[in-house]
Write a structure and sequence with these properties.
The chain is an alpha/beta fold. The chain has nine helices and 13 strands. A six-stranded mixed β-sheet has the order 3-2-5-6-7-13, sandwiched between helices. Strands 8, 9, 10, 11 and 12 form a five-stranded antiparallel β-sheet that branches. A two-stranded parallel ribbon has the order 1-4. Helix 4 runs parallel beside helix 5. The radius of gyration is 31 Å and the shape is flat. 27% of the residues are buried.
Length: 363
């Protein structure tokens, strides 16, 4: 009897061992199969990536020079020397997408450059749709909501960079995020722009970045360069390298890295129709009365606050025609530009490398 129980125990132990071995073998086989599948998927993905053939970079010049300006002319020269393809006839996001779709059969794009003059207070030269509103966060969002943009075909990959060369656009993260939505296709590209000013056609190099510093005054009512230099020095006490008075008397770089100034106007306008209003059209006897009235209007005051320019830095005027009151303001922005120079060695510009996250915001 004892021998029978002993034999039965031995048989049971062997069965259990065989079961465990079989289970282990199945698990190992299953894990091995998963690993092989994953390896095949990665290999296929890698092969697919290696098979991608990119066209040479394309550059869209979205405006043209006016008066004595040479922003677009200098940008064209810079990219022509790099042997990039240059497109002159696309002045809107709609036309840029249409052009890319028309050339989609030629392959993918690794770099798409969009050159558009502007500043933090003025909309870009670039239009949303043909003959539509200029690009801003609000106008792009509105056209996205209304589905006014063409759908981008398969001309980009996740490695594609859409680079906006627009002054200080990189400080407007919300607009960059909104622009990214315009160019989403089968894959999502990177949208790149700099918080600095893009300077093309410099005295000593064809392209560099510059740190901007701002001061404002009511257009046609400058307090004078001495007062402006004192004001900008007080506004930026951390900047010790710039002689502000010298900078705002210097229109160009006389040596590598020298600070200089440029200026431009920023207008603002509101129209209020009193045709169906019980209120009378207000009259104003002075600039102060206009400013007081604006500050009491929640919407107008919010808009001024968002711009970040003090209300007293505008020159205000009002006109009345029939039942419509028009309020116009205009400020002049004096902008000192300090080229970005390497902090060591000889005076040399920092290369505007779009992979450098200190120089270019990337979303």
């Amino acid at each position: 009897m004892k021998n029978i129980i002993k034999k039965a125990g031995t048989i049971l132990t062997v069965v259990l061992l065989i079961g465990q071995f079989t289970s282990c073998k199945k698990t190992t086989t299953k894990s091995g199969n998963i690993a092989m599948i994953q390896e095949k998927e990665i290999s296929a993905h890698t092969k697919k990536r290696k098979a991608v053939v990119y066209q040479k970079p394309v550059v869209f010049l979205t405006g043209y020079d006016k008066n004595n300006d040479s922003f677009y002319t200098n940008a064209r020269t810079y990219f022509f020397d790099k042997k990039y393809q240059i497109v002159n006839e696309a002045y809107s996001l709609e036309e840029i997408i249409t052009w890319l779709n028309r050339n989609s059969a030629n392959g993918f794009y690794k770099e798409i450059h969009i050159v558009s003059k502007g500043n933090p207070w003025k909309k870009l030269d670039l239009e949303t749709v043909i003959k539509g509103e200029k690009v801003s966060e609000e106008t792009v969002r509105k056209n996205l909501t209304q589905d006014n943009f063409p759908k981008l075909k398969n001309v980009i990959t996740s490695d594609t960079k859409i680079i906006f060369h627009a002054n200080a656009l990189g400080t407007n993260q919300q607009l960059i995020n909104t622009l990214k939505e315009v160019f989403i296709a089968n894959e999502i590209p990177k949208v790149v722009s700099s918080p600095y000013y893009n300077v093309f056609g410099g005295e000593f190099t064809n392209h560099y970045l510059a740190q901007p510093y701002y001061v404002f005054y009511p257009t046609a009512n400058s307090p004078g360069k001495i007062d402006l230099s004192k004001e900008i020095a007080k506004k930026y006490p951390e900047e010790k390298e710039i002689d502000w008075f010298e900078a705002i008397n210097n229109e160009t770089e006389r040596y590598v890295g020298e600070a200089y100034y440029t200026q431009f106007n920023v207008p603002i306008q509101w129209e209020i129709d009193y045709h169906n209003s019980d209120n009378e059209i207000p009259t104003f006897a002075s600039q102060e009365e206009i400013m007081d009235w604006i500050e009491q209007n929640e919407d107008f005051n919010r808009e001024i606050t968002k711009m970040g320019i003090p209300i007293e830095k505008f020159r205000w005027k009002t006109t009345v025609k029939n039942s419509k009151l028009t309020i116009k303001g205009k400020t002049t922005v004096l902008c000192v530009l300090k080229p970005l120079i390497k902090p060591y060695g000889d005076l040399e510009y920092i290369e505007p490398d779009t992979n450098n996250k200190r120089l270019f915001a990337m979303k």
